[in-house]
Amino acid sequence: MLRSTATPLFGSESRSSSSRTVSGPSSSRSLPLMVNRRRCRRSGFCSSTSLTGSSSRLFQGSARLARMTPDEGEILALLVHHGFLDADKARSLLAMRQEQESLAALLARGKVLSPSEAKRLVRNRVGEQPQLTRYEILGRLGSGATALVFRARDRRDGSLVALKILREELARKRHALERFVLEAQQLCQLQHPGLVHGYRVARDQGSIFVAMECVSGENLEDLLLRGEVLDETAALDLARQVAKTLCYLREQGLVHRDLKPGNLMRRKDGRIQIIDLGFSVKAGAAAGGETTVGTVQYIAPEQALGQSDLDSRADIYSLGATVYHLATGQPPFLGEAREVLLSQVDTELDSSKLRELGHSPMLHYFIEKMMAKDREIRFQDPAELVAELDEKCGFATEEHTPEQQRPPSAARRRRSIKRSPHRRRRR
Fold first, then answer.
1. Which one from 222, 237, 258, 315 is the annotated catalytic residue?
2. Does position 288 have pLDDT exceeding 50, yes or no?
3. Helices then strands, each counted (H, E), the chain
4. Which listed residue, 4, 272, 380, 409, has the most CB atoms within 10 A of its CB?
């Protein structure tokens, strides 16, 4: 069972001198913030319009702005955007805010929302900010269905870390707790440049968390949400980098089972890292009686059918679906979840979108082979995929550490990103 306050939940800490903490982003935009936006949209409060930075412009000059967190500012900007209150009313609310008054209480007192609506909106958008003994919370990076992610400073040595904290309601459920701890243990034990490194998993002040490397970069689902796509060279390079990480996971006997843009981070030095191992299991093993896990837009046919004898070929299929999405701006199959699952099983990939966008037969070949319905036709392991990418695409075979790599210039970064043809024009 879990041990005492601030005690590691397994063995000793895995942080080593070779591990390098990278400065994280200074705002709440990075990491999978789109999860919050989806939840907000389900509550009827949010649209896809980006509100980043709008709160500081909206409330510029307000004496109370200094006491407003970025999350609270974004909530107020969001309410103004949707007509729940105007900018003057928002400024008036800030002016009347009492010491230690929560934003939910302020919105209810100002009759903007009912008390229950205000609490629900703030809870879903912000979440509870924990108070920990060892770590100073600096801000929220993102959140998902199972955990909240915060940027924090280790009080022992001043280093920056990312803290992934299990949601309180899930910490009371044995299966969810065991899965979270297992993922955290795997993250701390695995050592590869293509994986975000975990340092320790512990419980502190009632919060169960894993402390991880704080990465400076961009979650690739954020790129898609901006209506941008990767050019062909960048897409193939991503496939190669992720395939090399899959080689390592295969050596460890693991299948990831949930590769997708939202689980990939592109660092400023160009390195692609997998940031989540939540569904990973031993190859060929059933997962605690589960049938189908993963994300339907990227799931392999055998995974969609609930087969338990999964191996790295399922991850290769998901990688192909991910590359397709990043190169075209849309998933391989569209529709409701059940329709997409059926398409993953019995509908051949329509490559006309790749042709419409001018992608070469080379990219067609790799995506179609990665996404073959019959796994015997796919690349049989990630090493085979890497070798063929090196042979056909001319990638350098020498390995470079991040210190040896030169970060891509701004011009190169711009060339690697294109506007998606599916992005709506502003009117």
1. 258
2. no
3. 17, 13
4. 272
Q: pLDDT tens, 260-269?
A: 998 999 999 9
**Residue 281 is inside which H or E element, if any?**
strand 281-282
Q: Which residues lie across from 142 on neighbouring strands? A: 149
DSSP assigned state of 195: B
Long-range CB pairs of 178-187 (<8 Å, 24+ gap) are 179/278, 180/146, 180/147, 180/208, 181/9, 181/10, 181/208, 183/210, 183/276, 183/277, 183/278, 183/280, 184/9, 184/210, 185/9, 185/10, 186/254, 186/277, 186/280, 187/212, 187/277
CA–CA separation, 272 vs 227, rounded Å? Answer: 20
Whole-model pTM: value is 0.66
Cα-Cα end-to-end distance for the chain: 57
Domain boundaries, the chain: 7-21+128-213, 34-125, 218-419
218-419, superfamily in CATH? Transferase(Phosphotransferase) domain 1 (1.10.510.10)
367, exposed or middle or buried, with CB in 10 Å at 0-12, 13-18, 19+? buried
Residue 315 is among the residues annotated as catalytic for this protein: no
Closest by CA position to 243, among listed 32, 408, 388: 388
Alpha helices in 126-231 (DSSP H): 168-171, 174-189, 220-225
Give residue 410's pLDDT: 40
Fold of the domain built from segment(s) 7-21+128-213: Phosphorylase Kinase; domain 1 (3.30.200)
